[in-house]
Queue: 2 jobs
Job 1
Amino acid sequence: MTKRIFQSTMLVAGAVLTASVLIIMGCLYNYFDKIVEQQMKEALILAVQGVENNGVDYLNELASSTYRLTWVSAKGDVIYDTQVNANELENHGNRKEIKEALESREGFSLRYSITLLERTIYQALRLKDGSVLRISISHLTSWILALGMLQPILIVFFGALILSGILAQKVSKRIMEPLNNLDLECPLNHDVYEELTPLLTRIHQQRRQIEWQIQELQHKNDEFTQITQSMTEGLVLLNQKGFILNINPAAMKFFHTDHTCIDRDFLEIERSEEVSQALKIAMTNDHSEIHLEREGKEYRLSISRIESNGEIIGAVILIFDISEQTFAERNRREFTANVSHELKTPLQSIMGSAELIENGLVKQEDLPRFIGHIHTEAKRLVTLIEDIIRLSQLDETQELPFEEVNLLVVVNEVVASLHDEALKKNITIDVTAEEVYIHSVRQLVYEIIYNLCDNAIKYNKMEGKVEISIQKDEQKVILTVKDTGIGIPVEHQMRVFERFFRVDKSHSKESGGTGLGLSIVKHAVQYLNGTIDLESVLGEGTTIQVIL
Ligand code: ADP
């Protein structure tokens, strides 16, 4: 803009200077012309008097004058000329100035040479005898005069132009200075030119609008970041070229990356063919889903393309950890298969014995044994079904009633109900506990203690020992059931809490085990937000601690 102001100022200055030079020159030319004409007139009047008094003699004396004097008779013949031989000159009767003088005493004319470089002024006066005296002077035309003056004119012109240039530069700088120093943060504080007020007001309004929109965007962005940051699901936003726009911490963890991945190609971060294929499918078919296994966990990647005004502008990838779901699904399938099997075995056994009795194939003396067998198997079925019901109740995590439970009372009840079982193996049960009250679900506490004590007796040796203790500190209650039984091999210690897992199937069945006891314990403890600890030495015994 400074340049444009400078150029415009210089153009104006140049034009004004040129026009001024031309006008001044014209005025000077006219002025001097008039002076010359006046002087000529005065000289002519003098010459007329001289000629009237002294005739040609006077003119002879003037031969070297600046003016040319021509004396013409009333008929137009040249009588005398101060510069040219009169005989050589043609008749001047037709000349304008002569004609005018003959007619009205005074005559005037102006003639240019053929090349227009010279201009001649003629003035004529009629003498008393009727002849005419003409005075003339030739001088260069204004063009030639101007050319003659070209050097000084050019010097003045360029001098003035340089001066104009310096001034124009200063002026343009001064004009631009307030504009250059304009603070667009607060445009109205620099309202130097009132012509700019509407523009600055508009800028101010637009600034406020932009600020408000930025704030709004920032707010939305913060909201989005807060939501995505706390999401357990991974989230990745890609642009249409597949470059990462946004990624939340869960997704960073999944792809083993950090914030530096933003603005990079997603396929640089995740190089698996499966994922790139799924991304391609989503970009063409709108949506795609794949399951991935990473570090022993199951994930579902759901990829959807994002469109705006019918144009694909990117894609969103959501990563769900479905390990628990898959695990639960697998467990459910295994459980169903196990349940069917576990139910089928005693039923088949009952049916077999019943068929034999029905067909009279059992001797009378064996009958009680067969019926006893049917009874045992039926009892096992009932126990099994009861255990399954308990487990499914815990699975459904329905609200169970919490109350003040006296642990010692529950332990004593369990010991009483298992008294006969213990007696069969001559096992002593020691209870080391004082009265401890906990806020818990009585039924679950009973299940836990019962199953642990039942196992401690079932998997004990003859004349073995079971020690039950309850310890309490400020924050927790530790229930310990220790036996001197057969123990659990190290490799099976983690698996005994699985449904239907038994270390020794025949022993377990023999002693009426369903393989669900410890599963129920585990679930019940989990429901009560407790933990279980198992220590066992093969052949020496097992200690199970429940911390509530
Ligand atoms: P079960 O009804 O067969 O006893 P559990 O779930 O209670 O089923 O126990 C699973 C398996 O763990 C048992 O079959 C047994 O092999 C083993 N087990 C449980 N408790 C003990 C223990 N106190 N001593 C030795 N083995 C045990």
Job 2
Amino acid sequence: MSSDRITVSRAANGLHGTITVPGDKSISHRVAILGALGTGSMQVRNYLCSEDCLNTLRAMQQLGAGVTPGDAPQNFTLTGTGMQPTAPAHDIDCGNSGTGMRLMAGVLASLPFRSRMFGDASLSSRPMKRIIDPLAGMGARITACGEKPGCAPLEIEGGTLRPTHYELPMASAQVKSAVLLAGMLAGGRTSVHQPAITRDHTERLFEHFGIPCTVSADGLDIAVEGPVIPTNKDITVPGDISSAAFWLVAASIVPGSEVTLLNVGLNPTRDAVITVLRRMGADISITNRTEGGEPYGDITVRAPQQLVATEVLRHEIPNLIDEIPVLAVAAAFAQGTTRIRNAGELRVKESDRITTVVGNLRAMGAEVEEFPDGMEIRGGAPLHGATMDSYGDHRIAMSFLMAGLNAGGETTLLNCHSINTSYPGFEHHLRSLTGC
Ligand code: S3P
């Protein structure tokens, strides 16, 4: 468990070592949901045992899925209900997880019972209309009962849904997946059109679970034929590239570093953080790359002479949306001005990540300009340590701890418990790579 407050100082000798980051968060949520509905049992290996994904797994157990422990907490046997789920006896706690709540909404809206999902303060202020609207178009009855309009808790009167075609107004894999999961349970063909490529784990897992799904050549149009019951098949979840990103940046900004990260997911809809860091001059090499299903490999990163600024391109934004806080930290150590625009979605993440990143970078002495849809960071000047809030946002906490590894004095992040939502064991990795 991560402490509530974590302090670091400059890693004078660099970061060194080989680690395995925990399993991918997006894939873990989807495996729990599909496996719980599927027929038969499957071995799940390297499931992300973070609060977010454990909440989703517990929700699926409430629907009747069986979980038999394996040789380690992240390995277990998941037995599906064969699409005969039971009504949940209690309200479903989604904790901090927008992915859990939005994906489960697509499923719960299609099942023949009433359910209710709630979350923490952060999740209760995040927009749910983006999934309620398309699901309502399929006949779903979902009421957002939060204090803030359009927000959780969500009350769902489940029932049979109609297939739909939905044009996504924003590039969101969560919205896409909520509609596709509902489409999997509806009778007929459900299709979505997305304005840009977003992470395609749902599509890849549909193939794994034997669910007929077609994707257009440009990747923007996806269709599923329902109703279909997933066929459960063993799976190993690769390491989360979003967790690996913290070390990619830390080892690129702290002189003398060399870090190897084993079995990291390298899905091409998730790997733009590597492309952008390389463009900034990072020394990143990939070995033991596998293809098929979800590709993964080992990543070695060595500190370069000097990072240089870059412009993050519009089409790259959905591919690295969760890595922007830590890329902004890299930018503060890069010569020149880094531009990150077209990223308004950052304002509706676990915190308003434009405000929180800009505020914390300024607290450390960086020069940053804030825009409604992003920021420009003039990098290269030394940063100084500061005591900063992480606003209960795991990625803000970890990103600014990385900044502290090459800042003068001490850097303290408050409210770090949120790190457990995505990266159990983070503090242990931090101490072992920095040796302090
Ligand atoms: C996710 C999609 C992204 C991402 C989130 C995980 C997913 O959110 O930020 O952490 O697993 O589908 P959006 O779909 O809102 O962009």
